[in-house]
Design a protein that fits this description.
Helix content is 41%, strand content 17%. By secondary structure, it is an alpha/beta fold. Helix 1 packs across helix 8, helix 4 runs parallel beside helix 5 and helix 6 crosses helix 7. The longest helix is centred in the C-terminal third of the chain and has 22 residues.
């Protein structure tokens, strides 16, 4: 089986590849990994000789395949499953990212925060990584504010690369905002780690002065006591692999019975994991310290 991924180094993809690979190997299949990290490698892959004769199926991770790319695979007669996309007609695994963003910010609102910032994932020039999940998390953030009757403050929404340094830089920008937030929802744990670093470097207490919630439930989140949204990363990989196997079986059945149903899709609901990085705001102390930092 072939697995197409935009990255082999990111924690998320490592977890997905490990769990998907285990399922496929247990079913008796070898795994071929293709890292399509930039548009050039992606174009060469889909314009190349293809996978026919080398793979029985294709699992696509977070690449948001275009109709032309899907057609190229379809011409090879290869069953497909996707992760991180809910394109109609494709077997795949998706997360309710918008609902997860809503839940994350509701948690902060329920604690009493009203000035809530957002650190989002910025699309990188030359990246092949699909941007649907991060965009949905931002929409969930906006949904929660609207639900609470709060107007979003564009000055409290910052986007940067999905790295620790990106999160650190984004948090530094938020601290310089005209009305800095008392709580921040960060669209990935890796960025949240950077946000925590910037806050601590500035002498700002977490969560006494600023609460922080991330997204992923990264293996380091517990160590850093980070409240986060758990979207079952390992399960995403195993479910995607099972869908690919089911789609392969359906394809084989359709060779003799065109009416045989194709494999379906799986939607995963993220759950809130509360740790020590979020707490009710302490208005006077938090406001004074943040204003001193900005000044």
């Amino acid at each position: 089986m072939a697995i197409l991924t935009p990255s082999l180094s990111k924690w998320f993809f490592g977890q997905v590849l490990s769990s998907a690979g285990n399922v496929l190997r247990e079913a008796g299949y070898d795994v071929l990994l293709y890292e399509l990290a930039d548009p050039g490698s992606r174009d060469r892959f889909f314009a190349g000789p293809g996978l026919a004769g080398r793979a029985d199926g294709v699992l696509i991770l977070a690449l948001q395949p275009s109709p032309q790319e899907l057609a190229a695979l379809d011409r090879q007669g290869l069953p497909i499953a996707v992760l991180g996309s809910n394109q109609p007609g494709l077997a795949g695994v998706s997360v309710e990212d918008r609902a997860a963003g809503l839940s994350a910010v509701r948690h902060l609102l329920n604690l009493g925060h009203e000035q809530i910032g957002f650190i989002g994932i910025q699309e990188q020039v030359g990246s092949t990584l699909g941007g649907v999940p991060p965009a949905q998390r931002h929409l969930g953030y906006r949904d929660a504010l609207a639900e609470a009757g709060l107007e979003p403050d564009p000055g409290n929404e910052v986007f940067d690369e999905n790295t620790v340094s990106g999160g650190s830089a984004a948090m530094a920008k938020l601290l310089c905002a005209g009305n800095p937030p008392t709580a921040v929802f960060v669209a990935s744990d890796e960025m949240a780690f950077g946000a925590l670093r910037s806050l601590r470097d500035a002498g700002i207490s977490i969560p006494d002065d600023v609460s922080v919630i991330g997204f992923d439930n990264h293996e380091l989140a517990e160590l850093l006591d980070l409240t986060t949204m758990d979207h079952s990363v390992a399960r995403q990989g195993s479910e995607a692999a099972r869908l690919l196997l089911a789609n392969l079986q359906a394809t084989n059945l359709q060779a003799t019975d065109p009416a045989a149903p194709a494999a379906g899709s799986v939607t995963i609901t993220a759950t809130l994991v509360v740790r020590a990085s979020t707490a009710p705001p302490r208005p006077l102390r938090s406001k004074n310290k943040l204003q001193r930092h900005r000044g």
